[in-house]
Design goal:
The chain is of the alpha/beta class. The protein has one domain: Rossmann fold (3-Layer(aba) Sandwich). Helix content is 29%, strand content 20%. The chain is built from four helices and six strands, in the order βαβαβαβαββ. Strands 3-2-4-1-5-6 form a six-stranded mixed sheet, with helices on both faces. Helix 1 runs parallel beside helix 2 and helix 3 packs across helix 4. The longest helix is centred in the first third of the chain and has 16 residues.
Length: 162
């Protein structure tokens, strides 16, 4: 079995006109919500073998704050350039190329793609995943290359305002 957590990055700041989109940091709410979601995962006894994030500052910060709550080593967060500006097909490629020794993976990305990807893989449809929202899916397969809607089971959906 493979377990995939799909997370939209926490709330980002629009206060810095001189920064590129990739450089935008989290705002105060984002810095509060990401650890809350890490704590929510910890309460579910979540163990992550791998965290993969977009190279954007806001996704890396979100991943680091969640990792801290789960005692996952920050330096082991994997950055995947393909997640930034990805479409659903790109995210599926990223997931299908995950190392099979990792059974439980958190992927931190961007909307609208992260919501669309969750909806492609699950029969439980989400209108729009809010910032710092997480969807967990279980896949009845031994290899990430086999991940598909046909072997997916929706496990939970959570977000900071729940």
């Amino acid at each position: 079995m493979k377990v995939l957590y799909l997370m939209r990055h926490a709330k980002s700041s629009w206060s810095f006109d001189d920064l590129t989109d990739k450089e935008r940091p989290l705002n105060n709410r984002g810095r509060e919500d990401a650890p809350v979601m890490g704590q929510a995962l910890a309460k579910r006894n979540t163990h992550l073998d791998l965290i993969v994030a977009s190279p954007a500052v806001r996704t890396l910060s979100t991943a680091a704050l969640v990792a801290q709550e789960l005692h996952y080593p920050h330096e082991q967060i994997r950055v995947d350039e393909r997640i930034y500006e990805a479409d659903v097909a790109d995210l599926l490629t990223v997931v299908r190329e995950l190392p099979d020794q990792a059974s439980s993976v958190l992927l931190v990305g961007h909307n609208n793609t992260i919501t669309d990807f969750a909806n492609v893989l699950s029969t439980n449809q989400i209108e729009e995943m809010p910032t710092a929202g997480i969807v967990c899916l279980h896949f009845n397969c031994a290899h990430w290359a086999e991940v598909d809607r046909a072997n997916a089971e929706f496990y939970f959906y959570d977000h900071p305002r729940r």
